[in-house]
From TrEMBL:
Localisation per UniProt entry: Cell outer membrane
GO BP terms: iron ion transport
Polar residues: compositionally biased ranges: 174-188
SUPFAM superfamilies noted in UniProt: Porins
Stated name of the protein: TonB-dependent receptor
Pfam family, one: TonB_dep_Rec_b-barrel
Length: 981
């Protein structure tokens, strides 16, 4: 499953540049044998015909194949055998690079071919998981989702592509969790972007690359890479390395690496139009154009994509409600409505409907009842999104051994979503209010539990994202070695604002107003108040963020020496990166005028790193070693220094062992890390504070003790650290051509994770042994006095310093541990018959254990298969057929049942299975005007399966499904028209 990004100094043969791997088959599947009957012809044409017929990708520079003639090819062969026959006697050789074959010059021969050092050749191959050109990663398994598979899946966005990968968990920052979940960093997604969360270890623990380079971060503090900016139509493939890789790439590569490889070196013009519809007016439209031009010494590729999607209203999905009684759950609606509920001396009086609060009497009130409203009503499950993306790639030879390259990705995204917010409030109505009513008599202020949405409208969050990522560099060959230097820049700016909030300062003024024309009236139906008064009370809040990064890198790789089993190769490099995050808040919710505040994030951080990777071929088939046909070893290491959190070093070792030609065994060991984010390092009054509180204490005679809680971020924050072991195999039996079986075991130990124990603050002293690391018993009077004297001290109940018996550290700090063990697997089979080419396969991930420890001293708790964590089993089955211009594909997606621990007693959540299908037709090239047209009809969630019911409780609301494991959209029907000009 290893593929590469090719930068060639010559234009590639157009027919061979097409990624011809069948979409539903795994990217590493070997093609079956087939019959060939090709006449002798120019070599480039012959290679192209085999590539089209077999689906086996080959890349060949024009200069190498020009002027050469291929012999006739007749008989039944595998694709590799066919290529070898065509190249026989040409002086050229095939070099495997992951799934691909690269045509290169061979040694000098009778026809006078030059040696490799002097020949024109492919100059750079970059494969995710290794820094060595022309090599696949050793010991690791890379999942590749090619262009054909992207098309057959009917994916419109980069996030849809990753949602189909079993190793990816939907928890964290993405569209379906933002606003609903407080887990896995979802609240940091203020602009409704989309992150990737491999293994469920966190979106900030998955490294995202675009053509091998880091983009600028998105969300609060740039805490995740927002893949929504990537134009899916411009993707050549997506490579997923579900293995720790900090030894090569540095921070964040704990759960793995996802590399989005763009369609560079494209030649021609391709346009796409797509329209998708789902129940509830959830429309999706997409238009794109890809243009490229290649010439003898370079190429240019440009892509533009427009994407527009309507919001998915909660009212169109029955499970999007706080009243879950019809599903067997509870009613979580609160006693806040319009008309509201009057609370006097602890007694409730429901305000009657159908009146405007003028002339309302105590006799009309409904004692002992409460009016309730569903806060999920009139919200959106998915935001409206509109995006434009522009990608440009340029490559140019300076001379035969030097090349310039550059790329730019610019994207703009606008969003709009109706959200839950602070519309449901308890307001204090003074007797001076002209609509005041106290059913118990007197003139004391009364409390009204009121829902302001009927007056102000549903809170709505809207804004924009602007992303700019680019790099430029030069490569220079030195014989068999190549060196590259490049400069990079990234900037992501985000702006969001939530309107229709309640300005409490203006509201209190309006409630105290004695004029019945302008006073706020909360005693009637919505709209009973003067419109000008309502508009005056309308508030908002928002923020601007800016994440900027500069980078520079130099690297070189090539052979060190020849060994009996092949060349000993080395790659080494150095990198520098500078990052800065800024955020400014704007609020008009509690004052007469808007307030601007700057978040107290650290300044610029600088990162320097050096790495090296050594590939050692130990044994080759030509050495005739029993039980070892091939044995390769990889050694890698990286040292990285952060200006704010220190230095870390991470090694990795990988081994590939092929005991036979049909079986490959692999294994790896390595360490990885995640550096604290800007959010983790934030200081100041916004996050730091000291407050005395009373907590339960079984050792106290009274059963409770007064402690001083320390809030904020620890000043001693360091990197999170992980150790990963993997082992696996790939089996392709000769007895069953076309069958490939891949399986792998992984074991991740992730320690020093940044966390806090706020959720258990009032129970820490009950388990002193578990929480000993965050408890300081009997602090000195001087220590307590210093906290009390701090400007960050907060003491709303006036607890004296002498009452403090302990300090409890509730700061974010390197505290928790996670250990995850599991198995990845994939079985694929390909067969050709007179009826066409058929493929069938099944891939998935089975998590055996996900043990979490709140602190290093606490007992581990297995949380696999619970809300907020990955399910134990996730599967994706596939089958495809193609014959002539027709093709069809079907997929089944399965997520196993799990437990809902948010309710007591725990509830079992049912498994969820959905099906996707596509049928496509490609118009014959001989058809006038329609040549090059492909029509595809895709239906996702064919049987319109609703997500399984989950009594999903949040801090202030609830709804009936789990957005981390299910998609609320339902059945989607899409039509796409692709035209190659």
């Amino acid at each position: 499953m290893n593929t590469g990004l090719f930068t060639t100094r010559h234009a590639l043969v157009a027919s061979a540049a097409v990624l011809a791997i069948t979409a539903a088959a795994p990217a590493w599947a070997q093609p079956a044998t087939r019959d060939y009957d090709l006449a002798a012809q120019p070599l480039g044409q012959a290679l192209g015909q085999v590539a089209r017929l077999s689906g086996r990708q080959i890349v060949a520079p024009t200069a190498l194949v020009a002027g050469k003639t291929a012999p006739a090819l007749k008989g039944r062969y595998t694709a590799d055998q066919a290529y070898e026959i065509l190249l026989a006697g040409s002086g050229l050789k095939l070099t495997p690079v992951g799934d691909m074959l690269v045509v290169q010059s061979g040694a000098a021969n009778a026809q006078g071919e030059p040696s490799p050092a002097d020949a024109e050749r492919v100059t750079e191959v970059v494969v995710t998981g290794t820094r060595i050109r022309g090599a696949a990663p050793v010991g690791s398994n890379v999942i590749s989702i090619g262009r054909a598979e992207i098309d057959r899946g009917g994916y419109a966005t980069a996030q849809q592509i990753l949602q189909a990968v079993p190793q990816n968990f939907g928890g964290g920052p993405n569209e379906t969790t933002s606003g609903y979940s407080s887990r896995n960093g979802a609240p940091n997604n203020t602009s409704f972007g989309s992150g990737i969360n491999l293994r469920g270890l966190g979106a900030n623990s998955t490294l995202v690359l675009i053509n091998g380079s880091r983009p600028a971060g998105g969300g609060v503090a740039g805490i995740f890479a927002d893949i929504s900016i990537i134009p899916a139509s411009a993707l050549e493939r997506v490579e997923v390395l579900p293995d720790g890789a900090s030894a090569l790439y540095g921070s964040d590569a704990v759960g793995g690496v996802v590399n989005f490889v763009m369609r560079d070196d494209f030649d021609g013009l391709e346009t796409r139009l797509r329209y998708t519809s789902a129940d509830g007016d959830a429309r999706e439209a997409q238009a794109s154009a890809l243009w490229g031009k290649r010439w003898a010494s370079g190429s240019i590729t440009a892509a533009y994509e427009f994407y527009d999607r309507d919001a998915l209203a909660a009212t169109h999905r029955g499970f999007a409600t706080e009243d879950l009684r019809s599903f067997g759950g509870a009613d979580y609606r609160r006693a806040f409505a319009a008309p509201g509920t009057l609370m006097v001396s602890g007694q409730a009086f429901a305000i009657p409907r159908g009146q405007n609060g003028r002339g309302l009497t105590a006799g009309q009130l409904i004692p002992g009842q409460q009016n309730k409203a569903d806060e999920q009503r009139d919200t959106d499950l998915l935001p409206a999104q509109q995006r434009q993306s522009l990608y440009l790639s340029v490559k140019q030879d300076l001379r035969t051994d030097a090349r310039l390259f550059g790329q730019v990705l610019i994207a703009g995204r606008n969003f709009d979503r109706r959200v839950t917010g602070s519309s449901q409030r308890t307001v204090i109505v003074p007797a001076a209010n002209p609509f005041y009513l106290n059913p118990l008599g007197g003139t004391a202020p009364v409390s009204m539990q009121y829902d302001f949405r009927g007056d102000l409208g549903t809170p709505r969050t809207s804004g924009r994202v602007r992303a700019y990522n680019g790099l430029a560099g030069v490569s220079q060959d030195f014989g068999a070695w190549s060196a590259t230097g490049q400069l990079g820049y990234g900037l992501q700016r985000e702006l969001y604002r939530t309107d229709n909030g309640v300005n409490t300062y203006r509201l209190n003024q309006a409630l105290a107003d004695t004029n019945p024309v302008t006073a706020y009236n909360v005693f009637g139906d919505p709209g009973s108040t003067n419109r000008a008064t309502i508009d005056a009370v309308r508030g908002y809040s928002g923020a601007r963020t800016r994440f900027e990064t500069w980078s520079a890198a130099v690297r070189a790789d090539g052979p060190l020496m020849s060994l009996p089993a092949g060349d000993l190769k080395l790659a080494a490099g150095a990198e520098w990166r500078s990052e800065r995050f800024e955020q400014q808040f704007v609020t008009y919710l509690s004052a007469a005028s808007r307030l601007r505040t700057d978040a107290s994030y650290p300044g610029t951080r600088n990162i320097t790193a050096g790495y090296a990777e050594l590939r050692v071929p130990l044994i080759a088939a030509t050495m005739n070693v029993p039980a070892i046909r091939q044995l390769d070893l990889s050694l890698a290491g990286r040292v990285e220094r952060y200006s704010d959190v220190g230095t870390t070093a991470n090694p990795k070792v990988g081994v590939d062992w092929r005991p036979t030609s049909t079986l490959t065994l692999r294994g790896s060991f390595g360490t990885s890390f995640r550096a604290p984010s800007f959010q983790d390092l934030q200081t100041g009054p916004a996050v730091t504070g000291y407050q005395p509180i009373v907590v339960t204490d079984p050792k106290s005679p009274t059963g409770s003790s007064t402690v001083l809680a320390i809030l904020g971020n620890s000043p001693d924050m360091g990197p999170e650290k992980a150790t990963t072991w993997t082992g696996g195999l790939t089996y392709q039996p000769r007895a069953v051509p076309g069958l490939t079986v891949t399986a792998g075991y992984f074991d991740v130990r992730y320690k020093d994770r940044i966390a806090n124990v706020n959720a258990n603050a009032y129970n820490l002293l009950i388990q002193r042994d578990v929480y000993a690391d965050v408890i300081t018993e009997a602090p000195s009077a001087a220590v307590v006095a210093a906290y009390y004297a701090s400007p960050l001290f907060y003491n709303p109940t006036n607890i004296p310093a002498s009452a403090i018996t302990a300090l409890i550290d509730l700061e974010n700090r390197n505290l928790s541990e996670v250990r995850q063990r599991g198995v990845d697997f994939d079985i694929g089979y390909e067969m050709r018959s007179d009826l066409g080419l058929f493929t069938i396969g099944l891939g998935g991930t089975r998590i055996l254990a996900l043990d979490q420890k709140v602190t290093a001293r606490s007992a581990p708790v297995d949380v696999v298969g619970t809300v907020g964590n990955p399910a134990a089993l996730r599967l994706r089955a596939r089958t495809t057929w193609s014959q002539g211009p027709w093709s069809a594909a079907a997929f089944a997606n399965f997520i196993s049942d799990y437990q809902n621990q948010l309710v007591t007693p725990r509830q079992r959540v049912k498994s969820w299975t959905t099906a996707d299908v596509q049928i496509a037709y490609r118009v014959s090239d001989s058809a006038p005007r329609l040549a090059g047209v492909r029509l595809a009809l895709t239906v996702s969630n064919l049987f319109d399966r609703a997500p399984p019911f989950v009594e999903y409780r949040t801090v202030t609301s609830a709804l009936g499904y789990d957005g981390e494991k299910a998609d609320p959209t339902g059945r989607r029907i899409g039509l796409e028209v692709v035209k190659s000009w």
